[in-house]
Amino acid sequence: MHANSAPGPKQRSRSSWGWARGFLDHRLLVLGICVAVGGFAGSVRGLMDGAGALQILALAGAGVLGTALAAACVVEYAKR
Fold first, then answer.
1. What's the pTM value of the predicted model, to 2 decimals?
2. What SS3 class is residue 56?
3. What would the pLDDT profile of 30-69 be if each residue is shown by its tens digit?
């Protein structure tokens, strides 16, 4: 390259969660809340109906995942 050529674009360092910032928005928060409510309500309903342990655990796991997703959105929003 020539000495008087324009410098290239600056490279920004990206954090390990840099790719996730675009995904953690209000739509994902609503999805997380819906999954959490559906999972916990489904597990309670399964307990009342006498469903199998695996079905109850799967629905409770969906509830926990939805809660974690909603919490991640809230934490990310608080960092902004």
1. 0.68
2. helix
3. 999 999 999 999 999 999 998 899 999 999 999 999 999 9
Q: Which helix (H) or strand (E) holds 38?
A: helix 26-49
DSSP labels, 6-30: PP-PPPPP--TTGGGTTT-SHHHHH
By CB atoms closer than 10 A (0-12, 13-18, 19+), residue 62 is: middle
- Percent of the chain scoring above 90 in pLDDT: 51
Which residue shows structure tokens 């609503």? Answer: 30
Distance (Å, whole) CA 48 – CA 72 = 31
Check: CB of residue 66 under 8 Å from CB of residue 43. Answer: no
Task: Name the one residue in this structure whose structure tokens are 């799967």.
Answer: 58
Residue of 79, 78, 76 whose CA lies nearest to 25: 76
